[in-house]
Amino acid sequence: MSQMMSSQEFMSARPAPSLAIARQALTVWRIRASIESLFVALVPIGYGILMLYFPMPVWMLYILIPAFVIFVIVNVIVAPYFRWKRFSYEVYDEEIELQYGVIIVRRTLIPMIRVQHVDTEQGPLLRKFDLAAVTISTAATTHRIPALTTPIADELRNQIVKLASVADDDDE
Hints:
It is built from 6 helices and 7 strands, in the order H-E-H-H-H-E-E-E-E-H-E-E-H. It is of the alpha+beta class. The longest helix has 29 residues, at 58-86. The two termini are 30 Å apart.
């Protein structure tokens, strides 16, 4: 007796995606987080400056500075590593599977028949490290593979376009 599997059963029966993003993503994400941390540093700095001109409690500064240090450690060192470690993808003939997330792990299946277009993009940081992001657009949303080496990103983009056009031809 043949029985249809639900998508949840199908995904749990299939092994997790095995392709990882480039390790240089760690450096890019850490640089980006360091730049963001400079803006967060304005909070304790601003509070310290305000203390010079207005009577404000010093204990608050003693809370803001360690909080900032903890924020930097988590945001610049710890989070990028787990984000990199947890992101994987796989391209099959009929779908693309993404797995990502640190606290909440998501597994997403994107049917090839739903793919409308695929882009590669490079910002200045990605370009410096010869990385590119692959963006897969469907009618409903956009999915992103954040950091692949440029040749792999270009090859992946072309592979998805080819598979999506075959899936589209089969649908007609």
